[in-house]
Amino acid sequence: MQALTSLVLATFVAYIGAWYVGLVEGNFALLLFLATLVTGIYWLAERFYFLPQRQHAAAELEVQTLKRNEELSKLGISQVDGNVTEAKAKLLAQPWWLDWTAGLFPVIIAVFVLRSFLFEPFKIPSGSMIPTLLVGDLILVNKFEYGLRLPVLNTKITEGTAPKRGDVMVFRYPPKPSLDYIKRVVGVPGDEVAYLNKRLTINGKVLETNAVPEFFDEDSMRYFKQFEENLGSVKHRVLNDDSRPAFVPGADEFQFKQNCQYSVEGVVCKVPEGHYFMMGDNRDNSLDSRYWGFVPDKNIVGKAFFVWMNFGNLKRIGSFN
Fold it and tell me: Is 183 known to be catalytic?
């Protein structure tokens, strides 16, 4: 078992190392599932096989020691060399290969359940959601709001509530589902979404916006126009860059692209059933549904709702819209 366990642990380490240096495309959900499965098997084996064996060996040692002491006592020998308590402790102790497998199972399964069905942490890598979310924000995503899903397979097992306009949602990037993206839900199934001349219209109604003080982006050292927008029941802020054109350059080919009409003013799209139209709050610096299309329900990960840490700015901690 020591050799087998060494091989299993070496395989996990090799995969993580190859992922880290970019030799393979990692899948943390799959890695965590396999770690839970493997350590769970070891935990069951420890509980129902290895531990009873060690307990039996310790009990046998105690019986043999007692019998030996009785025989020596008959010969008039009352003092016996050896520490039975220490020997029993060594017999009962877990070997290293069980410490690193069965011993880790309670922690790993707790992380697995928490991450798969309750809350998952993410780090914001880009500025597409500025000013709502900044680069470096560490956020929490609610995994049950839109219905529970099986890990790895992402198959929905409970209904939950449907995503609403204005929700900030994490989803699997349709052109490459191994990547997680975060944007705001702008259009739900059946909506007609128009983004023309940098104004958002839903089902023929232009969304109300109010100008607020300009936003200073510390990374680019520039000021951007900032507006407060009412999307559904959510009031949030968006940025516009006057130096960027209104039209959408270089839109990809995607499923249901026939539902979209592109022009020099922007784009108009009819959201198909079971899909969502996503946009970043940094409207002129966001690769979103205008470019790569609609997000299917099966790609949904969860609803982002809380910044739990930003090491560069502790004031960022808190909930957001």
Answer: yes
Q: Among 294, 265, 264, which Cα is nearest to 279's? A: 294
Distance CA 43, CA 48 (A): 9
Q: What is the pLDDT of residues 213-256, one digit of tens each?
A: 999 998 888 999 999 999 988 999 999 999 999 999 989 999 99
pLDDT digits (tens, 9 = 90+) for 145-197: 999 999 988 889 999 999 999 999 999 999 999 899 999 999 999 999 999 99
- Interval 284-313: pLDDT, tens: 999 999 999 999 999 999 999 999 999 999
pTM for the model: 0.87
- pLDDT recorded at residue 190: 97
Domains, the chain, ranges and CATH? 2-112 (no CATH), 124-319 (2.10.109.10)
- Give, for 225, the enclosing helix (H) or strand (E): strand 222-231
Rg (CA), the chain: 29
128 is catalytic: yes
User: Could you say which of 116, 128, 286, 289 is catalytic?
Assistant: 128
Q: Catalytic residue among 88, 116, 143, 183, which?
A: 183
Cα torsion through 185, 188, 194, 198, rounded to 10: -10
* Residue in the structure block whose two tokens are 């927008």: 229
